[in-house]
């Protein structure tokens, strides 16, 4: 904590000197960004990474003179992953902290609660993690944007990979809440389009585990004894770690079944599992730090590793990307006025570490490239990496607007 | 008994504060106050069972949340009317607490607590798993706020201050009902159940019926608080029904003092203000909240309001009941 | 058959962990009348300390041996300084106090060890798996399945044949009578609380190799342990054993056969038992 504070003071000092030298370039009022992540409890590690990504981006923006010459200030609040707390902190950002924009949201449940409220608060929200399709679908609205991949995009990639396998029958292991169920439903829809003869186990035979599960043995047994030869795993965070460790011990990864983990390449998970993560498994993520060689990505990864001594996770990238996106939108419309920013974000294209993204004006979802890959060991890295990597363009994985159910008023 | 000037002042000052607050507090703090009031009603309904009847319910959130869901369902599928939503929630939660209470009031103490926890969690599972009706884990949100029409005044629920006054009015009515109830013969009956269940049944009172009655009143008021909570957050979510939410009511009640009617309200205020102040400084707020709770329990065994009143009474040399 | 056996072992191994935690909970309630909300946090602390010892020494057994006594020592402090002033006061105060302790400990470990998930490897002797019919089954889980009844047997012997065990049972049955015949109840209380905490920490250390070590692990297990204790009968030793078995098996077979209502199964069971047997399966009827 203290170290962070020191760094922040130093940065402010540097920025201050820079601005002073620039001859009072800065307008007096700073641009305020309110972040809302899970900072406590079992998923706190996601919030921690996001905070690091956000701080890095803000330092970079401020080092270049801020947004339209105005310094950027960050406020972090803890959603605790609960909808009511999420709404409270968003309101706090808007009414108390005077935020010009709100970013973040890890949990889909919180995102689904917060998104409709943004029309009342008349403040842009940039979602960086939560993947529920509804917030850019049936619940889409003028103020809610998302720069990260959503369930549809991630599952479209999973379906493309699944279509190339020899698997006849698919089952799933997922969390027993909307995220897990929606992942499985989209998987069936998308894969059936590519492969009409694909078979999916009925609802009673797949394995959905409650969020509080720590012992996955009975779910693993259930899958191993089913007739499925392909498994879509949408578990994430601590659940995924527990699942993988117990599955390894139970001989789940014996090569008899094809396995796709939709969020298996999250560095939070890879750092915890290290060599316990089996190799040769298809894993997805929202961002992979080795996926492309662009200067933008290299600069981001280098700066991040130098500053925090770990590889950036997708959540770190999400927060970083949101700040950069906001800055680009402000430069585009030459204002940070909330309504103008909304216009600036609509249809905005920019280059981010993940690649070039375009925010679709119709539903506010970013059309962004995605990667899946097979886990592999590499002595140069402390964690499993992806080798080979399979890249997808945003255009091929993003469902058309008509399919999202988004009707903007 | 004639009210003393001090007592009158003690009652008038908070009332004046609550009425005037929206005119000098910032919008955000008005919203916090709205939440405190809502949770006060919830915790006070819990305390009718706990403090006055001696029944520790860990399933109160189940009915609180159900009230929220009934209201939102009525808004989505029925007329866009606030009063219809209230009516649906009141009827629904009264009915639910009748059924659950019928089973639970047969048991005492810890068994009652665990049994209510069980029923509460069954309701949670329904809200969490019945996706087609309840929206599953994402909850039911995105509904249009109904108009706020009073006889001579038309407000908007989207305005935080209008909403505040609605909540203040509803919570006032709920508190009034509770006040009248605990100071009636029925309230005496409840307290004598808490003191000695057996003796009461010897003198011919139907303990179960009295308890069930208290359970239904408490449940209905909890449901009412649930409506306010769901409307305030623009969503009814399964978290509202979880046992940990019941735990919040328990916490606030013991914190403020279970022996006093407004103890839970004071507890709710302390809880929210503490949470707000601590989260502003650290993300490890639970460490501090936990430590402060431990200290408060040891320093104020009757709860904060309870201990203060006790102290005041002792100063005046008049023992309180 | 294989499915049945696998489910049986899955349920038994989880049940045995639950048993170790519940037994402490039930003894503490039986003797002291305290419903300890922080019990899950002591379980979690056992796992964290085990992880720390594994980091230092590389040996799981050191962690299992040295971690739990530390937790017991902490429990002694908790009992002396926090719980003792509350004896004879309202039970709800103890509830709130232990709840506060739970928040403090759960978040405290995050201050010390960070928010990331931690992993503990099972000892070499117990890693790997054995074949059960055509399926391989992890050795560590079988170890838990065997360990549970052994621990139960040891505890039973302790309660039946040793002086301390007899004192404990006497105090659990009738506190006043024990005091009259000369038992030093305050010392006994401290011992009971520390012993229960030690058992919970042993459970935590044993759980560490098969689930990720994180700040929420205690909160997750505490409710299930409550259910075990209540359906078995508060303060009942065999009740905790049977209750843990039932819950463990319900968990594994429920996953296979009733996936849609699986989340509610423990609560339905709980309500069903309490409504037909008010004091639980092995509780003394009053």
Classify the secondary structure makeup of chain B into a structural class.
mainly alpha
Number of helices of chain A: 14
Helix/strand order of chain B, N-terminal first: HHHHHHEEEHHHHEHHHH
Number of strands of chain A: 16
Tell me the strand percentage band of chain A: 15-25%
User: How would a crystallographer describe the biggest sheet of chain B?
Assistant: 2 strands, antiparallel
User: What is the typical, i.e. mean, pLDDT of chain A?
Assistant: 89
End-to-end Cα distance of chain B, whole Å, is: 15 Å
Number of domains of chain A: 2
Within CATH, the superfamily of the largest domain in chain A carries the name: Response regulator
First-to-last CA distance of chain A: 44 Å
Query: Measured on Cα atoms, how large is the radius of gyration of chain B?
Result: 20 Å
CATH class of the largest domain in chain A: Alpha Beta
Order of helices and strands of chain A: HEHEHEHEEHEHEEHEHEHEHHHEEEEEHH
In quaternary terms, these chains amount to heterotrimer
For the CA atoms, what is the radius of gyration of chain A? 21 Å
Reported CATH architecture of the largest domain in chain A: 3-Layer(aba) Sandwich
Q: Summary?
A:
The complex is a heterotrimer of chains A (409), B (321) and C (286). By secondary structure, chain A is α/β, with parallel strands linked by helices. Helix content of chain A is 43%, strand content 18%.
How is this fold's topology laid out?
The complex is a heterotrimer of chains A (409), B (321) and C (286).
Chain A: H1 2-21, E1 31-37, H2 44-63, E2 72-78, H3 83-96, E3 101-104, H4 108-121, E4 125-127, E5 144-146, H5 151-163, E6 169-175, H6 178-194, E7 199-200, E8 207-209, H7 217-224, E9 230-233, H8 237-249, E10 258-261, H9 267-273, E11 282-284, H10 295-308, H11 314-333, H12 338-345, E12 349-352, E13 355-359, E14 366-367, E15 370-376, E16 385-392, H13 394-397, H14 401-404
Chain B: H1 5-24, H2 27-53, H3 60-77, H4 82-104, H5 109-129, H6 131-134, E1 140-141, E2 148-149, E3 154-155, H7 160-182, H8 185-195, H9 197-202, H10 207-233, E4 235-236, H11 243-256, H12 263-279, H13 285-299, H14 304-315
Antiparallel strand pairs in B: 1-4, 2-3
Chain C: H1 2-32, H2 39-57, H3 60-83, H4 91-113, E1 129-132, E2 135-138, H5 139-161, H6 163-173, H7 175-180, H8 185-207, H9 217-232, H10 237-257, H11 265-276
Antiparallel strand pairs in C: 1-2
Helix pairs in contact in C: 1-5, 1-6, 1-8, 1-9, 1-10, 2-3, 2-4, 2-8, 2-9, 3-8, 5-6, 9-10, 9-11
């Amino acid at each position: 904590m203290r170290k962070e504070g020191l760094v922040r003071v130093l940065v402010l000092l540097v920025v201050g000197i820079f601005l002073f030298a620039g001859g009072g370039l800065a307008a007096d009022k700073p641009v305020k960004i309110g972040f809302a992540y899970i900072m406590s409890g079992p998923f706190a590690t996601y919030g921690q990474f996001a905070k690091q990504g956000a701080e890095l981006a803000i330092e970079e923006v401020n080092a270049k003179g801020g947004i339209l010459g105005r310094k950027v200030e960050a406020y972090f609040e803890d959603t605790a992953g609960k909808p009511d707390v999420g709404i409270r902190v968003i309101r706090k950002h808007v009414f108390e902290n005077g935020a010009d924009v709100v970013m973040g949201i890890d949990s889909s449940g919180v995102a689904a609660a917060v998104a409709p409220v943004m029309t009342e608060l008349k403040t842009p929200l940039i979602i960086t993690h939560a993947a529920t399709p509804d917030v850019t679908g049936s619940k889409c609205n003028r103020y809610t944007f998302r720069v990260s991949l959503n369930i549809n995009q991630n599952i479209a990639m999973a379906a493309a990979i699944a279509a190339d396998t020899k698997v006849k029958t698919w089952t799933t292991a997922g969390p027993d809440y909307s995220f897990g169920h929606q992942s499985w439903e989209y998987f069936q829809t998308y894969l059936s389009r590519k492969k009409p003869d694909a078979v999916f186990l009925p609802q009673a035979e797949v394995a959905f585990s409650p969020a509080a599960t720590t012992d996955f043995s009975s779910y693993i047994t259930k899958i191993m004894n089913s007739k499925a030869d392909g498994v879509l795993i949408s578990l994430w965070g601590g659940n995924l770690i527990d699942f993988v460790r117990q599955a390894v011990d139970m001989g789940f990864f014996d090569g008899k079944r094809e396995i796709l983990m939709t969020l298996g390449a999250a560095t939070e998970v890879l750092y915890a599992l290290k060599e316990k993560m089996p190799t040769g498994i298809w894993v997805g993520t929202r961002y992979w730090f080795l996926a492309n060689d662009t200067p933008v990505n290299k600069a981001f990864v280098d700066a991040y590793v130098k500053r925090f001594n770990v590889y950036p996770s997708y959540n770190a990238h999400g927060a970083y990307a949101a700040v950069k996106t906001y800055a680009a939108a402000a430069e585009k419309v030459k204002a940070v006025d909330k309504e103008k920013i909304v216009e600036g974000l609509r249809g905005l294209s920019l280059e981010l570490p993940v690649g070039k993204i375009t925010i679709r004006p119709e539903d506010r979802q970013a059309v962004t490239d995605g990667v899946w890959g097979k886990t592999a060991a590499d002595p140069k890295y402390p964690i499993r990496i992806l080798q080979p990597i399979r890249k997808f363009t945003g255009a091929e994985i993003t469902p058309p607007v008509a399919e999202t159910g988004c009707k903007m008023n | 008994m004639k009210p003393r000037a001090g007592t009158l002042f003690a009652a008038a000052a908070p009332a004046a504060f609550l009425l005037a607050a929206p005119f000098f507090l910032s919008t955000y703090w008005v919203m916090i106050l709205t939440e405190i009031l809502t949770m006060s009603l919830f915790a006070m309904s819990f305390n009718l069972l706990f403090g006055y009847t001696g029944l520790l319910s860990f399933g109160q959130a189940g009915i609180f949340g159900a009230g929220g869901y009934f209201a939102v369902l009525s808004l989505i599928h029925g007329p866009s009317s606030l009063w219809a939503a209230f009516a649906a929630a009141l009827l629904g939660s009264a009915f639910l607490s009748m059924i659950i209470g019928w089973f639970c009031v047969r048991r005492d103490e810890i068994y009652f607590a665990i049994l209510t926890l069980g029923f509460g969690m069954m309701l949670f599972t329904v809200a969490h798993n019945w996706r087609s009706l309840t929206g599953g884990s994402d909850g039911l949100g995105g509904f249009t706020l109904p108009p706020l029409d009073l006889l001579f005044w038309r407000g908007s629920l989207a305005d935080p201050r209008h909403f505040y006054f609605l909540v203040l009015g509803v919570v006032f009515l709920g508190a009034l009902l509770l006040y009248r109830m605990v100071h009636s013969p029925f309230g005496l009956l409840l307290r004598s159940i808490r003191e000695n269940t057996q003796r009461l049944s010897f003198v011919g009172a139907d303990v179960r019926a009295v308890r069930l009655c208290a359970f239904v009143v408490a449940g209905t008021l909890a449901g009412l608080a649930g409506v306010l909570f769901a409307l305030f957050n623009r969503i009814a979510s399964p978290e509202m029904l979880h046992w940990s939410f019941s735990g919040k009511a328990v916490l606030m009640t013991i914190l403020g003092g279970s022996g006093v009617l407004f103890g839970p309200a004071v507890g709710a205020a302390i809880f929210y203000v503490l949470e707000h102040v601590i989260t502003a400084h650290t993300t490890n707020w639970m460490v501090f909240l936990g430590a402060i709770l431990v200290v408060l329990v040891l320093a104020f065994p009757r709860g904060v309001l309870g201990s203060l009143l006790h102290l005041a009474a002792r100063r005046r040399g008049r023992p309180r009941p | 058959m294989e499915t049945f056996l696998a489910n049986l072992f899955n349920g038994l191994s989880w049940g045995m962990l639950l048993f170790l935690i519940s037994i402490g909970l039930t003894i503490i309630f039986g003797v002291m009348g305290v419903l300890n909300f922080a019990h899950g946090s002591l379980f979690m602390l056992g796992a964290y300390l085990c992880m720390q010892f594994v980091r230092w020494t590389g040996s799981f057994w050191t962690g299992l041996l040295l971690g739990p006594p530390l937790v017991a020592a902490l429990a002694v402090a908790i009992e002396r300084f926090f719980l003792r002033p509350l004896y004879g006061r309202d039970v709800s105060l103890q509830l709130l106090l232990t709840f506060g302790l739970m928040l403090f400990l759960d978040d405290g470990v995050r201050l010390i060890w960070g928010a990331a998930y931690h992993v503990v490897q099972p000892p070499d002797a117990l890693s790997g798996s054995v074949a059960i019919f055509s399926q391989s089954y992890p050795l560590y889980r079988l170890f838990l399945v065997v360990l549970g009844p052994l621990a139960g047997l040891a505890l039973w012997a302790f309660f039946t044949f040793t002086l301390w065990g007899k004192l404990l049972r006497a105090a659990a049955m009738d506190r006043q009578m024990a005091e009259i015949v000369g038992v030093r109840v305050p010392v006994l209380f401290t011992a009971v609380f520390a012993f229960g905490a030690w058992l919970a920490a042993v459970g935590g250390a044993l759980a560490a190799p098969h689930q990720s070590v994180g700040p929420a692990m205690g909160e997750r297990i505490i409710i299930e342990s409550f259910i075990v204790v209540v359906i078995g009968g508060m303060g009942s030793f065999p009740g905790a054993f049977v209750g843990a078995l039932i819950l463990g098996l319900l968990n594994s077979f429920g996953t296979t056969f009733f996936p849609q209502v699986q989340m509610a199964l423990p609560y339905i069971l709980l309500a069903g038992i309490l409504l037909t047997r008010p004091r639980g399966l092995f509780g003394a009827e009053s």
